[in-house]
């Protein structure tokens, strides 16, 4: 069933890390709002069938693109192909990310370096590229995915938190720099979101999920759709006067 009030109707949107979890939910939420979705991931073929189903279900186009966000050449090729096909890019959601949950004394340098390459450097490079393309169309919206851990801290996530803190700082500066071109830059900072990966991590750690829920004022874990709804708002014209902001989607967490 197609919603009559579709706030992203015909907007050309690129979403990275869209094969599962939060990214997949963002892509489907955007499609339900009428967006032309380019769902990106490095897992070749992982989204082909799902993209066809979404396209038919929501009466729009969901197109899978496969590349590694750390491969600058592949990223440029993908973004340029979208721009040539559609004539513009309206929205970029930088969702692709890597996390290693290890304490300070246990985190390995290659793991830290990979998190910074995927979570920070790739984001900066994609914003550099897409902002040039958006400027040709006199504007656009960029949404970066940060994390509440960058603000509140989280044991065992020091290096990961550092990458998300960098994204918050980058978001604020990029918003000021790109405002004159009509490009808005915001970030969504999720708290604990119940994804497949979340369940795996908690099974490995042995920590009781109930202990975490008790520290969330709204009394429940977040869902991928909670994050997707926030991204859809920031991507749409409903937030046309909002830029440089970090929107917490964390249930009023105290962790």
TrEMBL record:
PANTHER family from the UniProt entry: 3-OXOACYL-[ACYL-CARRIER-PROTEIN] REDUCTASE, SHORT-CHAIN DEHYDROGENASES/REDUCTASES FAMILY MEMBER
GO biological process, one term: fatty acid biosynthetic process
Gene3D superfamilies reported in the protein's UniProt record: NAD(P)-binding Rossmann-like Domain
Keyword Oxidoreductase: yes
Pfam family, one: adh_short_C2
PROSITE patterns given in the database record: ADH_SHORT
TM regions (residue ranges): none
InterPro entries xrefs: NAD(P)-bd_dom_sf, Sc_DH/Rdtase_CS, SDR_fam
Record's keyword terms, sorted: Oxidoreductase
Example GO molecular function: quinone binding
Descriptive protein name: Oxidoreductase, short chain dehydrogenase/reductase family protein
Keyword Oxidoreductase: yes
Similarity comment: family membership: Belongs to the short-chain dehydrogenases/reductases (SDR) family.
């Amino acid at each position: 069933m197609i919603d009559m009030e579709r706030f992203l109707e015909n907007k050309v949107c690129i979403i990275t890390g869209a094969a599962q979890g939060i990214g997949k939910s963002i892509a489907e939420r955007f499609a339900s709002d009428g967006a032309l979705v380019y769902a990106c991931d490095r897992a070749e073929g992982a989204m082909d069938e799902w993209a066809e189903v979404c396209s038919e279900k929501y009466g729009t186009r969901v197109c899978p693109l496969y590349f590694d966000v750390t491969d600058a050449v592949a990223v440029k090729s993908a973004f340029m192909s979208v721009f040539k096909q559609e004539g513009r890019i309206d929205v970029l959601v930088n969702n692709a990310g890597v996390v290693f949950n290890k304490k300070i004394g246990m985190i390995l340098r290659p793991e830290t370096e990979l998190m910074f390459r995927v979570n920070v450097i790739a984001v900066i490079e994609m914003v550099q590229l897409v902002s040039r393309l958006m400027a040709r169309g006199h504007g656009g919206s960029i949404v970066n995915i940060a994390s509440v851990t960058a603000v509140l801290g989280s044991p065992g996530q020091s290096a990961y938190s550092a990458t998300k803190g960098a994204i918050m700082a980058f978001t604020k500066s990029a918003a000021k720099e790109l405002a004159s071109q009509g490009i808005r830059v915001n970030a969504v900072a999720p708290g604990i979101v119940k994804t497949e990966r979340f369940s795996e991590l908690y099974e490995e750690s042995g920590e009781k999920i109930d202990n975490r829920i008790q520290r969330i004022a709204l009394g429940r874990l977040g869902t991928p759709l909670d994050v997707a709804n926030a991204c859809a708002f920031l991507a749409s014209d409903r937030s046309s006067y909002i830029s440089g902001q970090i929107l917490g989607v964390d249930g009023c967490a105290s962790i």
